[in-house]
Amino acid sequence: MTEAIAVQEELRSKVDTTGPGPSPTEARHVAGLDVAYDGDDLAAAIVVLDGQTHAEVDRAIVLGRTTFPYVPGLFAFREIPALLEALGKLTVTPDLLVCDGQGLAHPRRFGLACHLGVLTGLPTIGIAKTAFVGSYSPPERERGSSADLVLDDEVVGAVVRTRTAVKPVFVSVGHLVDLRTAIAHTLHLTPNYRLPETTRAADHACRQALTAGR
User: Fold this and answer.
1) pTM of the predicted model, to two decimals?
2) Which alpha helices (DSSP H) does the chain contain, by range?
3) Average model confidence (pLDDT) for the chain?
């Protein structure tokens, strides 16, 4: 565990949080990434969507086994090997990676989205279902409302309402994207549901692959 933390400490200086990164209208291809587990067996999925229509244009699935234990704050080390392998199988290079997890909103400011962004050199954001660290005041009830997610007096993300009167999501910068742009992508990718179309597609793909691979 000490070695993994040292890797995070070394790589986090490479994170670019100023971006600004591609805007929602500039991103031609946006990829969702997710991993499903059955014990130590896993299925990693990357589904690439058209940035404007959200139609699927590419996907890659990797089946394998995790070799790293579940440790809060070190989750990336369980998922990154399979996700990198899946990225290598894509025929389309995404303009943006959307992780189902955290970026800067992490105890060491280096969650999965930051880690993956630095290793791939691709613009990356994290959109999580729940908060991992930080405090916040609930955003207003209307879709598009947001509030700062704060850790140690530093804004590490945003709490964003993607559906009116529905639980918000937690957005943080991964790499090569600023927070304002990350929020804009979050709202662009949630025309009908609380979670982004990228996350929904990748979640379905990895769960389906894991079930088929049993």
Assistant:
1) 0.94
2) 2-11, 76-89, 112-120, 179-188, 197-212
3) 94
